[in-house]
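ok so i was messing around last nite and threw this chain in just to see what happens. nothing serious, just curious
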Amino acid sequence: MILDKLGIKELNLMQKEAHKEILGNAEVVLISPTGTGKTLAFLLPILEELDPKSKQIQVLILVPSRELAMQIQQVIRNMGSGFKSNAVYGGKSGYKDKIELKHPPAILIGTPGRIVDHIQNENIETKNIKTLVLDEFDKSLEVGFESEMKEIMKSLTSVRKKILISATQKVKIPSFINLKEPKKLSYQKEADNELTVKVVVSPSENKLKTLEALLSQIGEGSGIIFCNVKESIQVIDDFLIHKNLNHACFYGGMEQFDRERALVKFRNKTHRLLIATDLAARGLDIPELDFIIHYQLPPKKDEFIHRNGRTARMQHNGTAYILKWEHELLPEFIVGSVIEKIKPSTKQISNNWETIYISGGRKDKISKGDVVGLFMKQGGLKNEELGLIELHQDCVYVAVLRTKSKNIIEKLNNSKLKKKKVRISLLK
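result:
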């Protein structure tokens, strides 16, 4: 049972209704807030309609970012359906893609640019693709992707089902997508009631001192500090390093490995703060957040909504803080906010965990149970001293209490896991 493998007892209302409508309609447009489980909502019915005898690509899932492509592929793997999937995107070796695609997956996930490259180089055959999914379609249908999207659509001559997914619909669906009478499902209003928007006024234009005071007042919890450009991220990064405030950064100019490492550490609480551009506003597998901070406000309402969607998810409360210079005017799309006064505080966002790297993964037949056994039986860790375990194809990331990490590495480095001798080290 797929839900058992994912640790889910029951689908939510949106997922149940989406499952029914995707199976029953050739065209579906699903709008649902960030964090409501849209990926599972479209994957479950898609898997039901796959032909296990086919040796060709049956489903194409187009996404605007590499992180979203990797996230969807990870969900498919976790579902354990038996169907092969591949994710292709910029920053990954095109030659490696070509080798993997010689054995076509049932489900291909990719960014528009990389998919076009593989079509032009005849690395993928599109004539058997029956289902097209546009995830975060309001991004993938923006002007910057238009030429790639047109070329892809021309090559999809056999598509019989189209599924468009997003948290908001800020773009008009262009005519080349060729939707006729799509079934529209909108759950946009469901997550609005749990969000509190607070404005924090800064006497200084750079707002760094006010940010420090706000973080001190918030104390515990995890959150994202949103900026518009990477230069602002670098300024805050330097400031927080100087103040010994633990954090990670995430933006488009970073190397892919550094971006993945930042997300791993943010998910497992090694870092409780993430300083990011709007790249982190959607399509990332990150946990429920206690707050987000707009260090800089986005120019458009839709991006403001997407950022806020990172907190107050799935019926949980959350707070969006807006840092505003005292001479700055707020845009018209900000309504219902309240002023938050900063009080003197000495609270700090705690940093109790560290991330340990293991040099073996799924391809070596290593399971999470194997890791738990090694760390608890041989390493002597108690249950509460072992945190989130992330199993990847060629490695495992394990959160361990900071006070135990050095001892664990000394004890377990060069241990055997499933007959493979693995290196165990601290993830820097």
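not much to say yet. Residues 181 and 202 are 50 Å apart (CA to CA).
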